[in-house]
Specification:
Succinate dehydrogenase; two-stranded antiparallel sheet; two-stranded antiparallel ribbon; transmembrane helix; mainly alpha; transmembrane; membrane; 9 helices
C-alpha cells in the first residue's frame, strides 16, 4: 500500500499517479480526417447552392415552384406562384421570397441532433473525430449564445411540419397543367413528390417527434395509439442520418430542376 500526498493510504500503484502525457494530437493511424472532410464539403455545397437559389429569380414555371422559394407571400410573386393565391406581405416586400421562410427549415436542420454532430466536427473541429484532440482550449457546451439556441429544436420542428405541408401542397399543384387542368404528370411532378416523401420522412424521424409521440408515457399499454405512433417514428428515427442526407439533396435537386426548367435550360415534352 502506498501513501498519497495528503497522507491517506491508497491501493493505486505509484506509476498510476501521473496521467500519461501524450503530445500527439491523436495516435490513430487511419484516415480519421476523411469523414469530417466529406461532411464539410457536402454541407458547404448545400450552403453555397442555397445562397445562390434564394437570390435567383427563376423560381416558378407552371405548374412548378422551386422549394427554396415556397411559399411565395408577396405581390411581387408571379400570380400562379402565390400560396393559396394570397399575398399577405403586399407590395412592401421586394426581397426574394425565400428569405421570408428561410428561418424555419434552416433552423430545423441547424438544430437537428445529427447535423449538430456533423458540423461540430466538420466546421468547428469539436472534436474532428473520436480519439482526436480538438484545438479549443475552453468548452462551454450549449449553455451560452449562440449554441444555447440549439435547445429550441422542438419549436423549429413545429415550423418544419408547416413547411413540409406547404411543399406537399406544391406537389399536389404539380399535378395540374399550365391551363389548370388536373392530370399533368411530368418529370418535375415526380421529382417534387419524391422530395416531399423524403422531407416528411426526415421531419418525422426527428428525435423531438419521437419524444412528442410517447416520450413521457410510463405505460404504453394504456395508450395504444400513441404507442403505434412511437413505434413508427422510432423505426424512422433509426434511419435519421440517412434521411437527413437524402432529404437535403432531394430538396436541392428539386429546387435546381424547377429553376432549370424556368430558365429554359431543360425543355422537353415531359419536363
Amino acid at each position: 500500500m502506498t501513501q498519497t500526498t495528503a497522507g491517506r493510504p491508497t491501493n493505486e500503484p505509484a506509476q498510476r499517479k501521473q496521467r500519461a502525457q501524450i503530445k500527439a494530437r491523436t495516435l490513430r493511424t487511419d484516415r480519421w480526417w476523411l469523414a469530417p472532410a466529406i461532411t464539410f464539403a457536402a454541407l458547404a455545397s448545400f450552403l453555397v447552392y442555397g445562397l445562390w437559389a434564394i437570390f435567383d429569380k427563376s423560381y416558378f414555371v407552371e405548374p412548378y415552384i422551386a422549394p427554396f422559394s415556397s411559399p411565395c407571400l408577396a405581390t411581387s410573386c408571379p400570380e400562379g406562384a402565390r400560396f393559396l393565391g394570397l399575398a399577405p406581405f403586399g407590395d412592401w416586400w421586394t426581397l426574394p421570397p425565400g428569405i421570408l421562410i428561410l428561418g424555419l427549415p434552416a433552423g430545423f436542420r441547424m438544430t437537428c441532433y445529427y447535423y449538430r454532430k456533423g458540423y461540430y466536427r466538420a466546421f468547428w473541429l469539436s472534436p474532428p473525430a473520436c480519439a482526436v484532440g480538438e484545438p479549443h482550449k475552453k468548452y462551454t457546451g450549449e449553455t451560452r449564445l449562440p449554441l444555447i439556441i440549439q435547445n429550441i429544436h422542438r419549436y423549429f420542428f413545429y415550423g418544419a411540419i408547416v413547411i413540409a405541408g406547404i411543399l406537399t401542397w406544391d406537389a399536389v399543384l404539380a399535378l395540374r397543367d399550365a391551363q389548370g387542368d388536373w392530370g399533368h404528370f411530368g418529370l418535375g411532378t415526380a421529382i417534387l413528390w419524391i422530395n416531399v416523401v423524403l422531407i416528411w420522412a426526415y421531419t418525422l424521424s426527428c428525435h423531438s417527434c419521437r419524444h412528442i409521440t410517447a416520450g413521457r408515457l410510463n405505460h404504453f399499454s394504456k395508450h395504444p395509439v400513441r404507442y403505434k405512433m412511437w413505434t413508427f417514428v422510432s423505426k424512422l428515427n433509426s434511419r435519421h442520418m440517412l434521411l437527413a442526407w437524402l432529404s437535403m439533396y432531394s430538396v436541392m435537386l428539386a429546387d435546381l430542376y424547377v429553376r432549370l426548367v424556368a430558365k429554359g435550360i431543360i425543355n422537353f415534352p415531359f419536363a
